[in-house]
Amino acid sequence: MTTVLETLVAKGRRVQRTRDQRDVAFGLAALSTKQEIHYNILKKGGVKTLTHLLKSSYDVEAQRFAALAIANTACIENEKIEFIREDECLDGILSELRNDDSDTTVRQYCAMALANLATDHKTHVQISDSGGLFAITYFLKVVSKEKYLDAARYATVAISNLAINPNHRHKFIQYGAIESLVCIACWDDWTVQCKALEALRAICMSHELRIVVINAGVLDPLVIMSKSDHRSVLYEVAAVFHCLSTVPEKTNEISDRALSTIISLLFVQNKVIEFHASSTIANLTEESSMHHRFFLESGLYQILSLYETYHVDSKVEVMRTLSNLSGNRESHSQLLSVDVLKTAVEALGTSEVNCQTFAASLLANLTVDVASHALIIREGIIGPLINMARGNGACMEAQRYAALTLANISFTRESHHVIVDALGIETLVMLSNLMDTFSQKNVACSFANFASDANIHSYIMKKGVLHSISFLGQNKDLGVRSNVSAALRGLSVDADISIRIVQEGGLAILLPLLSSNDIAILRNATACLYNLSLIAEHKIEISQVGCIPLLTRL
């Protein structure tokens, strides 16, 4: 076979008759179908011979066979950069792509060759510098107008491979590739549709270009293609929707034109498609203005059913969607009406940290409404929530949201005994030591709420709450200090506790609070000081630590 190759390579450079050129090109094309011989074709000058035939032959058949052989040989492993350095090879390929007088099949094989070469990122710079991006886009426009099916397939693959390089994507936009790709995506052939969507998705890897793709009219073709019976098409449709849904300016447009389509993709019995669809919905629901539309499309029932799937990634996106929806207080009644709390409890208990985090975020948002507290208490959610706040298998972010939820729930006095029974006070004391201002602010808020309930004062004092409040009082954050002042005010109404406050250095905490410019902090601090001053023994200490001058300035 080596001898045959060498003979053909040598003959191809000197033959003049078109029939001989055709025979040589055919022979090399036949050899190029064998992958193991690609290396020999390259090393023995076969690519140079094929380039010569492609550029110089007047016989269309010879050019076709030469272009096909080049395309086949361009599949060579690990040697593509050497291939592209062959004299005039790349120039010959690109010249054919730009030449409207050239045979369509020849140009098709040249597009195939470029697509194969572009699978190696090392070739991208030379392809770009040689005008390859313009050439393949120019050819794409031609085939999209003339509806050359096979040619479109190879051109879209070439663009998809080249668009992996972020420096190329803007150039494809500049040369007008988007409109042609959208046009090809509307064709009847599902394989070509997939390739066009792959190319669009590759370009959309640059976030700023996604809005250009949407403006080019890709949404309606995507909706049409979602009716396909081919999983490959549905995968690309879902993936493109996922990509485009990250553009905040287009959230409402996508929702108006494609929300029902995206919801329908949730149940195609394919975990990757379901993941892309659920991620799209999670992205869209970050915009509260589309929540009403989502409920009208019965999206809440569909997304909840998807949580029953065994695919962890989809579960995470379901919880992210629910968390987004719960950020809108107008959505709370809808969420609570479909037993979303059961899903939240299950997610709290999972080992997947993102599920935990979004479940805790969901509960934190829901508990902003006092009306939800009784239901949450009745559903037994406080126990798992405290377990998460304690950090048992939970990530830091989940702990922070758990602390926020406890702060919200503790506003309802009926929750206090439930939290106490679930070791919630001990957990909050532990959380107060975290060097995290968000957590400390919520722990202090919980302490302030508990301090308003005289029935549990003695219990929380036994658990070291006063020491934790003193530690939290050192935080410079205004929110933490406001909650600390409220907690001290609530505890100071108890005469026995007010004695302990003074004994354990509580006046040192009050001093900086009295210097605050915040009205709420001043109101709580002065009220606390008033309660402490009701005990005669405290009056001298209050004056000695310097409280009087601060009070006179108020």
Describe this structure in words.
With 554 residues, this protein is mainly alpha-helical. It contains 39 helices and no strands. It is elongated and about 120 Å long. 72% of the residues lie in helices and 0% in strands.
- Measured as a percent range, the helix fraction is over 70%
Strand content: under 5%
Radius of gyration, whole Å: 35 Å
Q: How confident is the prediction overall: mean pLDDT?
A: 90
What is the number of helical segments per DSSP (H or I, 4+ residues)? 39
Tell me the total number of β-strands.
0
Distance, first to last CA: 101 Å
How is the biggest beta sheet arranged?
A: none
Unreliable runs, pLDDT <50, ≥5 residues? none
By secondary-structure content and strand pairing, the structural class works out as mainly alpha
Shape: elongated
Lay out the secondary structure.
Elements: H1 2-12, H2 18-31, H3 38-43, H4 46-56, H5 60-73, H6 80-84, H7 89-98, H8 104-117, H9 124-129, H10 132-146, H11 149-162, H12 166-175, H13 177-185, H14 190-203, H15 210-215, H16 219-225, H17 231-244, H18 251-264, H19 271-284, H20 291-296, H21 299-306, H22 312-326, H23 332-337, H24 340-348, H25 353-366, H26 373-378, H27 382-389, H28 396-409, H29 416-421, H30 424-431, H31 437-451, H32 457-462, H33 465-472, H34 478-491, H35 495-503, H36 506-514, H37 519-533, H38 536-544, H39 547-552
Helix pairs in contact: 1-2, 1-4, 2-5, 4-5, 4-7, 5-8, 7-8, 7-10, 8-11, 10-11, 10-12, 10-13, 11-14, 13-14, 14-17, 16-17, 16-18, 17-19, 18-19, 19-22, 21-22, 22-25, 24-25, 25-28, 27-28, 27-30, 28-31, 31-34, 33-34, 34-37, 36-37
